[in-house]
Design a protein that fits this description.
By secondary structure, the chain is an all-alpha fold. The chain has two domains: about 30 residues; about 140 residues, Four Helix Bundle (Hemerythrin (Met), subunit A). It is about 80% helix and about 0% strand. It has eight helices and no strands. The radius of gyration is 20 Å and the shape is flat.
Length: about 170
């Protein structure tokens, strides 16, 4: 009797997972370019970061100054969320264009995962300790990958959807 209940529970759990997955695919396919652009968080920009980073690079800035230059935990979280949205934008471009470079898509996916891992590592360390060089190193690694990802995303859009580039550049 217990074995039968466990089987039914497992089947029900699989059915719920499949239903949720199908709903998320349907929702993803119904997204428009404008809805994706609207989801980008404007409170953290790759251009602003590169300006701040160049002023701290090679200097004897303290970890606190470096942390402030990436806008701390809020800036890291904005990068985390924007990486996911840019990945969805790349998938959108791939679905709606025949001339998408698979190598470029692979590098965008890799950048997104690197950003997300570095951000979670930095935030996890930040939750338990004060700002130090290790946390700043993860934050700057994530910010560097974010700047590279925005450049690659712009390149992808120039090739596959040139009309979308101005809106994307203005949003990042």
């Amino acid at each position: 009797m217990i074995f039968l209940l466990l089987q039914l529970a497992a089947i029900a759990a699989v059915a719920v997972c499949l239903y949720r997955w199908r709903a998320s695919v349907r929702r993803r396919n119904a997204q428009t370019w404008d809805s994706l652009l609207a989801r980008l968080r404007p409170d953290w920009s790759a251009r602003e970061w590169s300006d701040r980073c160049s002023s701290h690079e090679g200097s004897n800035a303290t970890p606190e100054e470096k942390w402030k230059s990436v806008q701390g935990a809020c800036g890291l979280w904005a990068m985390f969320e924007n990486a996911r949205v840019m990945l969805e934008m790349a998938d959108y471009a791939a679905r709606n264009s025949d001339t998408v470079d698979c190598q470029l898509l692979a590098s965008l996916r890799s950048d997104a995962m690197q950003i997300r891992v570095c951000v979670m590592t930095a935030l996890g360390k930040y939750a338990f300790t004060q700002v130090n060089e290790s946390i700043c190193a993860n934050a700057f690694r994530a910010a560097s990958a974010y700047a590279e990802m925005t450049a690659r995303m712009t390149e992808l859009l120039q090739v596959s959807a040139a009309g979308m580039v101005p809106d994307f550049v203005a949003a990042t």
